[in-house]
Structure formats: structure tokens, C-alpha cells
Design brief:
alpha+beta, 7-stranded antiparallel sheet, 13 helices, 10 strands, globular, binds protoporphyrin IX containing FE, membrane, transmembrane, HODM_asu-like, transmembrane helix
Length: 369
């Protein structure tokens, strides 16, 4: 722990290189990209093309971090009208992985899910091998022990990383069996992820760990391009081309985040077997639900790029909040408006896709009661 805290800011060599490389990019190119990015994002408040200062790409150690005392973030990205957008916000590499008091229970749950669902929740295609090795090493050496030195500690020779919350130790280099390496990542961080490579046809998923899947089978997405991955998503065509462009231009050292939200009528983090409803599922409309078993589900999603293999890392942390807590915190009215607003924006199919026709009336009545 003291190592990284003594140096105040520990910066992996590739991040410094990224900063130096950034400075050398000509001004005109920056200006061109600025205009392109602003256009594809559809909003003006964030300029992702702006070069970060070296401080902003450094990983800030949380020297006295106590995960048992850290309250979970409360992402509430819902709006009165649902419009499908990229909705990206600039963030820092320090915040790539967020840890809180749910850490150990979620890690235990992830182990159980992997034991039960195996290859449904993790996998790779051969082209993904080097990117898995790179991600593994980045997490075990460059990121986790630097950001969370009270939780993850390296052995003096840096060959082993000790997880002080679970008592487990793992090698800092990916093991030969890359499925096993994915499982180690899955029980080290709560975030799920896809790794993507750029191909002439667009970005394609080459590896994944998705223990907390909801409404889709993650293994079916392996090897697919973004367009096919989002096949069931209504109005995806409105953002697909901008996403591909944005991914192509995302620079090493840059992190952007977005949130999504959903409602579910069970308490399960893994719900990979139930598919999203379609119009033909109308027979399930306005189902009986138990509000005590109804949850607000939200993912905090991050996009970044690995420097060596240049894979895109799409990682996301899932938060599940009882509907009773949403009401108690005073967000009931806004969430009810947002649920009804699923029908009213530029992607009205979201109402059925997210299951609104099944539970919305009863959930909204409860939230407004
Ligand atoms: C800017 C980046 C992205 C945007 C704006 C986006 C947008 C969306 C939206 C709107 C949905 C519908 C559900 C929801 O509200 O979240 C969705 C679903 C999904 N997204 Fe993305 N996405 C992005 C990146 C990715 C990436 C990189 C992957 C993985 C390679 C991915 C995988 C999925 C999957 C698996 C689903 C569920 C699809 C299904 O129902 O079968 N997304 N995405």
C-alpha cells in the first residue's frame, strides 16, 4: 500500500506515453476531431477531444480507502422522456473501477454464477487472447493495487496480487488457460465487460465476462459486431453509426461513462435466461407483481482503450435498488414519469423492450402513492 501512496500519484508508463503522444498531435487534427466528436455525441457540454493534463490521466491512490464503509453510488440517469443517445460523460482513469461496501457479497455471487452458468457468462474468440492478457495485467498491476492500495497488494516481486477483502491471491500475469484468467478477473472486480476489436465491418466483441446479465445471453454476443449485439434494441440504428465512429476515435487514457436503467420484478443480478419482451408477448401485459420483489436496476458503463492491443474495453457495474428504497429516497415521481416516458421519445419501442407493458401500471401507481 505504501508504495503507491508515498508517490502520491502512480502512473503506469503507458499513460505517460499516451500523454506525450497526445501533445505531439497537430492542432488542426485536434480541431477537426473536436467538431466530429461534438456532432456524433449530439450535445455540447463535454469535449472528449481535449487533451487531458497528465494529472487527469494519473491513477490517484485512495490511500485510506475502507471498502466496508463506502456507500454505493446511486446512478439515476432516467429522464421524463426516453431518447436513445450515447449520453457519454467524460471521466478519469482513476474512476474506471468503483468499489463499495457491496464488494465482497457481489464477488461471492459472481463465483456462484460462474460455477452455475459457466461459459454463458465468460468466453473469448482466439483473436481476443492478447487483449485479455493486457487487461488482466493492467488490472492486477497498474490499476487495482495503485487505486485501492488498502484492498489489493502486490508481493515484493510483483508476481502475486493479494486481495485483502477475499483473502485470495492471484498471479499478476494471465494464466495460460485464458478462460481461467477471465474467471480470476470476474472474482476480482465487480464490473462486467466486453472487449472489442475494430474490424473493417465495425467493432466486434472478442472476449467477455458478464455475470450480471439481464435479458440477454452474453455468450450469444461473442464474436458479433455492435450492430448484431444490439439487434433486439429498438431504434439502435439512430446511434449505431455514431457509436462506431466514437469507438474508432477513442484515445488511450480517456474514459467516458454512461448510465442505463431498467425495472425488474425479481431480485436476481443474473437474469441471462429471460429474454427482453417483444410485441408478440402482449399476453403478459399488466402482470401481477410483488412490489417488495421489484427493483430499479442501473448500470454505470465505462468505455476506454487498452494501449497495446488497442482493444476497446466496455465495462459496467450493476446496481440493484429495491423499489421501496427508490420511493423512500424521494425519486418515485421522477421514475414514474420516466417509465411512462419510455413511449414518448425517439425510441418508442423501448416501452415493450424494457417490459413497461408488463409492470408499468402497478409500479407507477406504487411510486406515486
Ligand atoms: C456508447 C456505447 C453504447 C450505447 C449508447 C449502447 C446503448 C444500448 C442501449 C440503449 C441498449 C438497450 C438497453 C438499455 O437501455 O441499456 C443496449 C443494450 C445492450 N448493449 Fe449497448 N450500448 C453501448 C455499448 C455497448 C457495447 C460496447 C456493448 C458490448 C459489446 C453493448 C452491449 C449491449 C447488450 C448485450 C445489450 C442488450 C441487448 C439485448 O437485449 O440483447 N453495448 N445498449
Amino acid at each position: 500500500m505504501d508504495q503507491s501512496c508515498q508517490t502520491i500519484k502512480a502512473v503506469p508508463s503507458w499513460l505517460w506515453l499516451a500523454g506525450v503522444a497526445g501533445i505531439s498531435i497537430p492542432f488542426l487534427w485536434t480541431e477537426f476531431r473536436k467538431r466530429q466528436a461534438t456532432r456524433s455525441l449530439g450535445h455540447k457540454q463535454h469535449d472528449f477531444t481535449k487533451k487531458p493534463q497528465q494529472q487527469t490521466v494519473a491513477i490517484e491512490p485512495l490511500c485510506s480507502f475502507d471498502w466496508t464503509k463506502q456507500d454505493p453510488l446511486r446512478p439515476r440517469p432516467f429522464k421524463p422522456t426516453y431518447n436513445i443517445t450515447m449520453g457519454l460523460q467524460a471521466d478519469t482513469i482513476s474512476n474506471l473501477i468503483v468499489i463499495d461496501k457491496t464488494y465482497r457479497q457481489n464477488i461471492e455471487l459472481r463465483r456462484e454464477i460462474i460455477a452455475t452458468h459457466g461459459k454463458t457468462v465468460h468466453g473469448l474468440v482466439p483473436e481476443g487472447a492478447d487483449s485479455i492478457r493486457e487487461l488482466y495485467e493492467f488490472l492486477m498491476v497498474d490499476y487495482l493495487p495503485v487505486r485501492y492500495p488498502t484492498l489489493f497488494q502486490l508481493s515484493p516481486d510483483k508476481m502475486v496480487m493479494h486481495n485483502l477483502a477475499t483473502g485470495k491471491s492471484f498471479p499478476t500475469r494471465a494464466v495460460e488457460d485464458l478462460d481461467q484468467s477471465l474467471r480470476i478477473i470476474a472474482e476480482t472486480v465487480e464490473d462486467d465487460f466486453f472487449l472489442l476489436h475494430e474490424t473493417p465491418e465495425g467493432h466486434r466483441s472478442v472476449a467477455f465476462v458478464v455475470c450480471f446479465a439481464s435479458g440477454f445471453d452474453p455468450s450469444e454476443k461473442l464474436g458479433q459486431g455492435l450492430k448484431d449485439i444490439h439487434g433486439p434494441v429498438p431504434s439502435y440504428d439512430k446511434i449505431g453509426p455514431s457509436m462506431e465512429r466514437f469507438f474508432s476515435r477513442l484515445e488511450v487514457g480517456r474514459v467516458v461513462k454512461r448510465g442505463n436503467w431498467a425495472i425488474q420484478t425479481h431480485p436476481n443480478m443474473f437474469a441471462g435466461e429471460g429474454k427482453h419482451p417483444t410485441e408478440s408477448d402482449a399476453k403478459y401485459d399488466d402482470m401481477a407483481i410483488d412490489i417488495e420483489q421489484t427493483y430499479y436496476r442501473t448500470e454505470l458503463q465505462a468505455l476506454s482503450r487498452l494501449p497495446k492491443t488497442r482493444a476497446i474495453l466496455f465495462s459496467f457495474k450493476t446496481y440493484l435498488t429495491p423499489m421501496t428504497d427508490i420511493k423512500a429516497e424521494g425519486s418515485g415521481e421522477q421514475l414514474a414519469d420516466a417509465i411512462e416516458g419510455l413511449k414518448n421519445g425517439n425510441a418508442p419501442g423501448m416501452w415493450v423492450y424494457k417490459g413497461g407493458s408488463r409492470w408499468a401500471r402497478k409500479v407507477c401507481d406504487y411510486l406515486r402513492s
